C-alpha cells in the first residue's frame, strides 16, 4: 500500500515478493544512525552491501543493522574489473552472507564506473550456471539487456547515468526500449539525483529503482529517503494510471469558449 | 614457521597451521565472513581441515556499506 492506501502490485524478483519497489543501497552514509533512519524511512525491503577485506578494527556494524531492520541483503561485486574477480567475489558473498542473490557489477574503469559489457555477460552466465540469482548492473543498452536476460539473469538493472553522478536518466528512450523487451523485472540502477528522476524511471515502466548516493549523501538523508519512497510509489501509480497523450496545442479542460462569447473585447483579443 | 599472505599482509604461521587458525587470529567470533585460499572459496566447515602452505594467499572478506 502507498502513503494514500492505494493498492499497488508488489515487485517480484525470482519468485520472491519485495514489499517495496525502492531498493536503497547502504553506500555513502556518514554513520550507521543516519543509515538506519534512511533505511527505515525508505521502506526498502532489499539493500546492497559491498565485499571487502575483513578489518579487525571495523566490526560487523552494517550486518548487525540489517539484521535488526530485517532487510534482505543483496551483496554486490563492486570494484571488480573482470568476470573472474566478480565470480569469486559473488561466491565469497554467498559463503559470508548465506544468500545466492548478487548484484553483479563489473566495471571498466574508475572514472566512469561504466559496466564492462563482455566481462559482465561472461560473469552473469557463469553465476547463473552456479545457481545464483543474478541482478546485473548494466548499461542503458537494450541489446545487452536482452543478452543478460537470455543467459538467465533474474532482473536487468540499467543505469540512468554513471554511478554517483546524480545526472538522472540520460537516455529515457533506451530505458523504455529495455522495459518493452524485458520479461524479467527492470530496475533503474545508478544516476538518480532527486525524486523526479526516480518518478521518471517508474513512469518509463521500470519495475523498481535502486539508489544510494542520492539519499545517503543528501543534506538530509532521512527526508530524501521519504521523498524517494513517495516518488517511486507516485511514478508507479502514474504508469499504471496511463498518462494523457502529449499535444502540440492546448486543449481546454473547461467548457470551450468564453462565459460571454459575444463581448467585443473577447472577440478582438481572441485573435 | 611458514610465511603466508593474509589480506595482503605477511604472516608467520606454524607449519601445521590450518585455515581455521588464521581466522581465529583475526576474530574471536567468525560471523559474516568468507575465506578464499589461493583464489578459491573454502567453505566454513572445511577451514579446520585445510592446511596452509608456504606462500599461501588467504583472503578474508566481509560485508561493508556499499552500492
Keywords:
heterodimer; A: 271 residues; alpha/beta; TIM Barrel; 3-stranded parallel β-sheet; 10 helices; B: 67 residues; mainly beta; Ubiquitin-like (UB roll); 5-stranded mixed β-sheet; 1 helix; 12% helix; 40% strand
Structure notes:
The complex is a heterodimer of chains A (271) and B (67). Chain A is an alpha/beta fold. Chain A contains 10 helices and 10 strands. In chain A, helix 1 packs parallel to helix 2 (61-69), helix 1 packs parallel to helix 9 (221-241) and helix 3 (83-97) packs across helix 4. The model of chain A has no long low-confidence stretch (mean pLDDT 93). Chain B is mostly beta strands. Chain B has a single domain (2-62), classed as Ubiquitin-like (UB roll) (Roll). Helix content of chain B is 12%, strand content 40%. In chain B, a hairpin with a 2-residue loop joins strand 3 (33-37) and strand 4. The interface between A and B is medium-sized, with 36 and 24 residues. Strand 4 of chain A pairs antiparallel with strand 5 (57-65) of chain B.
From the helix content, strand content and strand pairing of chain B, which structural class follows? mainly beta
Number of domains in the coordinates of chain A? Answer: 1
CATH top level assignment of chain B: Alpha Beta
How many strands in all of chain A? 10
Sequence of secondary-structure elements of chain B: EEHEEE
Strand content of chain B: 35-45%
Mean pLDDT of chain B: 93
Name the largest protein-protein interface in this structure.
A-B, 36 and 24 residues
- The domain count of chain B comes to 1
CATH superfamily of chain B: Beta-grasp domain
Rg value of chain B: 12 Å
Label the CATH architecture of chain B: Roll
Helix content of chain A: 25-40%
Q: How many separate helices of chain A?
A: 10
What is the radius of gyration of chain A?
Answer: 22 Å
Structural class of chain A: alpha/beta
